[in-house]
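Before surveying the methods themselves, we first show a specimen of the format, giving the amino acid sequence and backbone structure tokens:

:::
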Amino acid sequence: MMLTDKTAVITGASRGIGKAIAVHMAELGAQVIINYNGSEEKAKEVQKEIIEAGGKAFIYQCDVSDFKQCESFVKEITAKFGRIDILVNNAGITKDGLLMSMSEEAFDKVVQVNLKGTFHMIRFVSRQMLKQKSGRIINMASVVGVSGNAGQANYAASKAGVIGLTKSAAKELAPRGITVNAIAPGYISTDMTGQLKEEVKEKIAAEIPLGILGEPMHVAYAAAFLASDEAAYITGQVLHVDGGMDM
């Protein structure tokens, strides 16, 4: 399974799952566009890691929740690289809290980044993919977008929306050879879960059939497969990478 000479755009690729996807796709031969919003320094660290390993990586700043920024971002990439073969919509945030006390700002911001950001990128990237009559779009959902989770109404709603968006986009774009799939990670060891206390992590792990939290590379392997030629006949699907949590 190789991605040789493919151009892959990964949003939110400066850390965690996005970084793992960028590094792995570069290892498989793709030239990787590392999108970041807040930390240019971290994005440069990912770029350096890829280049030192013999890969190709370029960094671009863009707030995916901003419609105009996404339009300019995609235009710039298309002008420079000529094509976009893979889009991974990974950028996402959390602003957890109980529903009865959640602010409007906390709800709106999570939806704007996680769901509208995914819509923005699909909208603009799909234009180029339609011209190419080919492309792979991979959206990052979540196990809580399927099962829900107390204290994460905004996050769960945004990720459930990503699943609906994935299926609708898959139906629209399939006639032109473009596949659209989602990955629903469970609890993955990232900066987000790193903030949890050890006893909380142990409790979570005990509820996972495989008995451990996942690693970012587990998601990266799934993303690379969905981006590959081997997955050409898979579209509109949600691949759970959750250790069996949602069985």
Observations:
- The longest strand covers residues 178-185.
- The beta strands are 7-10, 31-36, 56-61, 86-89, 135-140, 178-185, 238-241.
- The chain has a mean pLDDT of 96.
